[in-house]
Design goal:
Strand content: 15-25%
Bound molecules: zinc ion
CATH topology of the largest domain: TIM Barrel
CATH class of the largest domain: Alpha Beta
Radius of gyration: 27 Å
Number of helices: 15
Helix content: 25-40%
Strand order of the largest sheet: 1-7-5-6-4-2-3
Number of domains: 2
Structural class: alpha/beta
CATH superfamily of the largest domain: Glycosidases
Number of strands: 18
């Protein structure tokens, strides 16, 4: 009888074991970016309706609540996890402790069949660990939530981990911007570079200069053309279809707050002194003048000798700084054509008096705003062409050129964010498929982008330290 009982128990055990094997399969680990250290260990942790989440502080609770919300509302209809303040580790434990030996933005994650323990020294470190958990979980609703046992020690390599979006050429609504920010957060990026202004569309409400959005946010869609071909602003009374849009200051505050909750800083880009054609369709008085005193129409640069150009942009920055608390403000500064300045009677006079080359006139313009921003406790960043002339030493450079030119700009000693164009521009083709929609040109495959090493190995430690992102 005893033997029979034993056999029965063994049979039941084998049955349960085999059931467990079929239902609790160890999931593959798919993480982007891959953590600094990851050790796979035996088994899985299964989240059940009775799983308890413990936290050690209110700051940890905010992150734990995100996790509970994800499980309860997005991934499973049948679970309702609760957060409990408890220094003892329950099934899942979130902990922030500044005395822990963990890097500022780093985290440690330990998953065993009995528990999940996530620790960080700061709240953003814990948030990045939470996003690792998000990536380990299923992407859609599921009745089984299983995580593979593992140990992770992770921290970001660069302080600036950004993603850029140009809303000037093509306008995206706030709902899309928030979705975009969600994707940044999921991949542990911390800067949303919001390209709000360029030559063919002004997208930020400026109360002191309302024509920038009354006129500059809209363009005509000409017959048989796409909205981005043949740029011309749409004015009241025009019969063509109108294309465009802009963000009100209230919407911008909403986006900045949304990003902040996800540990993301929004860095706005306001173009100067070039790439500004749309501004002069709204305020033509800021254009250069030829020797006969006529406005040089069609130009995309501010008149660099006109004090009104500087006052106008200062007004804009005053409102921009109120909306964006970021340390950095991006001033564009790329591809400034010098032809207009060379033919403007006032700019010619200024260059002669100050013994400026056209490039030095550009740096005069850029440095004015470097100082303006510095005086208000902010930092200027611009595309690498701002190094022409005599750029202020405190300016930070964003480099979009080919990877071979990185050295040239690193040697100048400015802090740099590398956005190497031939790899990191996503308006390129991303596959060799003939079904891929029309792209700008170039080819940036997922593996090329993921495996890209931004810092050349042959540069000195000192030069490499200047690469902030
Ligand atoms: Zn001029």
């Amino acid at each position: 009888m005893k033997i029979l009982n034993f056999s029965l128990i063994l049979l039941i055990s084998l049955f349960v074991y085999s059931c467990k094997n079929t239902t609790v399969e160890r999931p593959d680990i798919k993480l982007v970016p891959w953590p600094n250290q990851l050790i796979e260990t035996e088994g899985t942790f299964v989240i059940t309706p009775g799983t308890i989440v413990s936290i050690n502080s209110d700051q940890a609770k905010e992150i734990a609540n995100l996790f509970v919300d994800l499980i309860n509302n997005k991934l499973s209809n049948s679970f309702s996890l609760k957060v409990k303040k408890d220094t003892l580790v329950q099934d899942i434990h979130f902990e922030i402790d500044s005395s822990l030996d963990i890097e500022k933005e780093g985290y440690q994650l330990n998953i065993t069949p009995k528990s999940i323990v996530l620790k960080a020294a700061t709240q953003n470190g814990l948030f990045y660990g939470y996003n690792t958990l998000v990536q380990l979980l299923p992407v859609s609703k599921s009745e089984t939530l299983v995580l593979p046992a593992l140990e992770i020690i992770d921290a970001p390599r660069f302080a600036w981990r950004g993603l850029h979006l140009d809303v000037s050429r093509h306008f995206f609504p706030v709902s899309y911007i928030k979705k975009y920010i969600d994707y940044l957060a999921l991949h542990k990026l911390n800067v949303f570079h919001w390209h709000l202004v360029d030559g063919i569309g002004w997208r930020i409400e400026i109360k002191s200069h309302p024509e920038l959005t009354n006129i500059g946010a809209w363009r005509k869609v000409k017959e048989g053309k796409k909205p981005w071909q043949d740029f011309e602003v749409w004015r009241e009374g025009d019969t063509e279809e109108k294309y465009g849009g802009f963000y009100t200051q209230e919407e911008i505050k909403e986006v900045v707050a949304y990003a902040k909750e996800r540990f993301i800083t929004v860095v706005p880009e306001i173009e100067l002194p070039g790439h500004s054609k749309v501004v002069f369709q709204c305020y033509p008085e800021l254009l250069c003048q030829d020797n006969s005193g006529n406005k040089i129409l069609g130009s995309d640069v501010y008149c660099a000798s006109n004090p009104e150009s500087y006052r106008f942009l200062e007004d804009i920055f005053d409102e921009v700084l109120e909306l964006f608390p970021s340390d950095y403000i991006h001033i564009g500064g790329d591809e400034v054509g010098k032809t207009t300045w060379k033919t403007c009677k006032h700019c010619q006079k200024m260059m002669k008096e100050k013994h400026y080359s056209p490039e030095e006139l550009q740096s005069h313009f850029v440095n004015h705003f470097d100082k303006y921003l510095k005086d208000k406790g902010r930092k200027l960043i611009g595309w690498h062409e701002i190094t022409q002339g005599n750029l202020s030493e405190t300016a930070t450079i964003m480099y979009w050129g080919g990877d071979k030119g990185v050295f040239r700009y690193l040697e100048k000693g400015h802090p740099m964010v590398l956005t190497t164009g031939n790899i990191l521009y996503f308006d390129h083709y991303q596959s060799m498929s003939k079904f891929e929609p029309k792209a700008f040109g170039g080819y940036s495959s997922l593996s090329n982008v993921y495996n890209y090493e931004p810092v050349p190995d042959s540069i000195s430690i000192q030069m490499a330290a200047n690469v902030i992102g």
